Amino acid sequence: MIYQNVRGLRTKQDEIFASLIDFDFDVVALTETWLSNEHCDVNLFPDCYHVFRADRDYAATLLQRGGGSAILVKSSIRCDFNVSGVCWSTRSLPANIGFYAKCKARSVFDFVDMMNLDVFTHESTDPSFCNNGLDLILTNCRIFTRAAEALVCPDKFHPPFEIGFLEVATVDVAETGLVFRYDRGDYRALYDDVRFADWCNVLLTVDLEESVLGLQKIITAAIDKHVPAFRPKSTKFPPWFNRNIVNLLKRKKAAHRRFKSSDLKTGINMRTGRILMSSAKCVSKKTVKLPSIKSPPNAKVTIWGSSFLTKTILLDLKMSPLLEEIRIFDEKPKAVKLANDLNQIESTSVARPFYGSYQIGFALEDVDVIVLAAGHFPVPGQKKNILFKRNLPIVLDMAYECAHHNPTAAVVVLTPPGTRNVPMISELYGKIGINDGGQIMSPMYHYEMVACKLVCETLRLPASVVSVPVVGGCCPDTIIPVFSLATPQNEFSKMEMENILTSLRKSHEKVSIQQKGRPPSLSVALAASKLVQDIVLGRFAMEQEPCSVFLKSDVIMNVKYLGAPVSFGPGGVQHNKLLPQLTDKEMKMLGEAVVILQKDAKIAEAAASARWNEFE
Asked: Is residue 421 part of a domain?
C-alpha cells in the first residue's frame, strides 16, 4: 500500500499509469490530484483498480487548481484529513480554531477511536510552514515507512509513504469471478422460464423478505440457465494491452529489478529499462484506438485565427448543444481574451485558448472539425491573384499542421480565395499520402442567404417560405443560383435572373464599400458555423438539410472541385455524386464558371507542387 501527495495529475497521466502497472500496489491513496470531471479514470489508472475520487468543485470555489483526492482499492482502505493547527498525536485543538474545523476534528477523533486506528503526521521542516502537519494518515497498521519508489516525481514537502500488511483478506473468486455474456443469452427461453415459474408461492408469501428472495431465486436461476458465463483470467493490465505491450512491460520490470539489486546504479540496466518503457508507450499509443463519437455533446472544434469572423463563429458555436469543447488557436493575448469572454456564457461547451507553435499539436489533435480563419481578407477592387499570393504561405503552414496533427478531421476553409485554397490544401494532403474524400471544404451557405433575400425582394414574399440552392464555386465570380429549384416555384424573366445574379455576385463588394473596406462578416460567419454543426450532426448520424459546399467532387468530368448541395454522415460527406437538374440557361452559366474553376485548380496545384518540391 502506498500514499503520496502527487501535486497534480493533469500533466502526469502517462507517469502514474505506468507506475501503477509496474509497482502493483494493493491500495493507493493519492491527495492533491487537481482533477475535475473532465479527466476520465480510464486515462489515468489501470482498470484493475476500483477508483474512488473526490475532486474539488472548481466552479464553486472559483479556483483553477488544487485539492482533490483519490483512493485506488484492491483489498483495503486509506484516507487523509486536513485541519490546520491540530495536534493529532495528543488530540489537542488550538484555541483559535473555528467552529466548523472543530466539528471536523472531533468527528475524526471519534472515527479513530471507533476503528482503533493509529495517527501518523508528516511534519514540515521548512520554517515557512510553521511546523504544521502537512500530511495526515489514519491506519491500523504498524509497518509504516517512507516509500523507496514514488508513483510520480515526489514533492520535497510531501514524500510518499508505504504500508505493508501482515495479513491480507482474500476473496473467493470461485463465487464472484463469473462474467455473464448477456449479448449471447437465449432470451426467448429465459422469458418462458420466468413466465411459467411458480409465482403463486412467491406472491402468497406473507413475509416480504421471503417474497423478494423467491423473486430473486427465479430470476437468478433463469439467468444461470440461459445466459452463458465464463471466468476471465485475472490480469493487472488494461484490456487493450496486447501481448507485445505486456511482454515489453514485463521485461522493463525485470530490468528495473536487476538495476535495484546491482551495486552499480548506472549502466546497461538503467538504459535497458528506459528503452523498454519508451517502446511500450509507443506500441500502446499505436494500439489504442479512440472510440467513435456516439451521442452529443461530445464534439470538439478548433478555430485557427482571430479574424473579424472569429467572434461571430465562436458565439454561434458556443450556443450549440452539440459541442463539448471549442479550442481557439492564435496569439496569446487574443486567444486568452476570447476564451475568457466566451466562457462567461453558460452552455454545454467550454472554450480553451492555445497559442504558440509548441501548442499547435494540442490545439488540433482529436478534434472533429478545424476552421481555418486566419489570413488576409479581400478589400473592394482587390484582384484574386494578389489575395491568393498574400495568403499562400499562411494557408500552406496551416495545411501542413492539420495534415500532421489530425489528418482525419474535417477542414473548413474560410481564408480567401476558397476556389484556390481548397484545391491547394487537397493537393498537399494527396502528396503527403492522405486521401481527401471531401473532408476539405469551404461554405457557400452565405450565398444561399443572399440569393433568398434577392428572390424575396423580387417576388415580394416572406423569407421564411423561400429557398434558393446555389452551385459552382465559393467566390463571387463562380457562384450560380439555381432558380429552377427555388421554392416556391416561380417563373423569372431573363432580366430578373440577370439582376439577381449581378446583385448576388456584387453583394460582398457592396457591403465592403459601405463598411469602408471591411468585408461582410456576419453572414460568412453564420454560414461557417452552420457548416460545422452540419458536419457534427453527420458524425452523430443525425439528419440535416443539404447545404451547398465547395469541395473535391467528381460530379462533372474533368472538374475536380465544385460546389453543390451535400449532406453529411458518420464517415463525412454523403450524396456527393449528383448535381441538381439545371435548365439550359443555368447550364450555360455553370459552363462559364467551370472554366474559372479549372483555372483556379491548376494555379492551386502548381503552388502546392512548388512548395512540395521546396520541402523535398
From this structure: yes
